[in-house]
Design the sequence.
């Protein structure tokens, strides 16, 4: 009986070692919480900018007249908000992930983390290029669902090399992107759900599951 228990413990240890070598497990749930919070703040600021100039009716903000209006001040403000949210989210992601890796005495830059990053970037870059092409063609209303769908694909890809829960975020974002196609013009609302609340919920769950002592 003791030998069987010892063999089981050895197998579990081997499994943990193999998992650490093939998966990047230092990704912090707090990074998701802060990314979602920044996304909500950015959405609120964007709504205020557009509502102030009477460009929107309720949550309808992605109508072509907004970006074709010739109001470059509005464009600059929206781009600045988007860049700010991106920079803050990436900064928070790196900080909390670095802190977790340091606490667990793990390296941040490993073969697994490189593979995760590459699998994450491939759909993101493709989706970004597609969005630029859509904007160039004046199809602004499709940008919101496209970003959600390609971000979802990125999460599913990355989940192969990190926590599997990341894949669930991806599937939900793809679903939101597809629903957004049926409700064109409400991209800001779907962004709030996908990039905001979904990140906060899953970030909190991941933190409670993997980090809270």
Sequence:
């Amino acid at each position: 009986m003791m030998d069987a228990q010892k063999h089981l413990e050895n197998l579990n240890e081997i499994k943990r070692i193999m998992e650490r070598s093939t998966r990047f497990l230092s990704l912090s749930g707090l990074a998701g919480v802060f990314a979602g919070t920044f996304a909500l703040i950015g959405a609120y600021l964007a709504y205020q900018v557009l509502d102030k100039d009477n460009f929107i009716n309720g949550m309808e903000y992605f109508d072509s007249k907004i970006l074709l209006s010739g109001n470059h001040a509005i464009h600059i403000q929206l781009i600045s908000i988007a860049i700010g949210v991106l920079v803050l989210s990436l900064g928070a992601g790196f900080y909390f992930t670095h802190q977790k890796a340091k606490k667990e005495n793990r390296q941040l830059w490993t073969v697994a983390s490189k593979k995760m990053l590459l699998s994450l970037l491939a759909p993101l870059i493709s989706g970004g290029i597609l969005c630029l092409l859509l904007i160039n063609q004046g199809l602004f209303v499709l940008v919101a669902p496209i970003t959600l769908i390609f971000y979802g694909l990125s999460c599913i890809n990355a989940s192969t090399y990190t926590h599997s829960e990341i894949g669930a975020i991806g599937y939900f974002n793809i679903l939101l992107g597809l629903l957004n196609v049926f409700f064109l013009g409400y991209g800001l609302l779907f962004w709030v759900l996908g990039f905001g609340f979904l990140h906060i919920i899953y970030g909190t769950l991941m933190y409670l599951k993997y980090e809270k002592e």
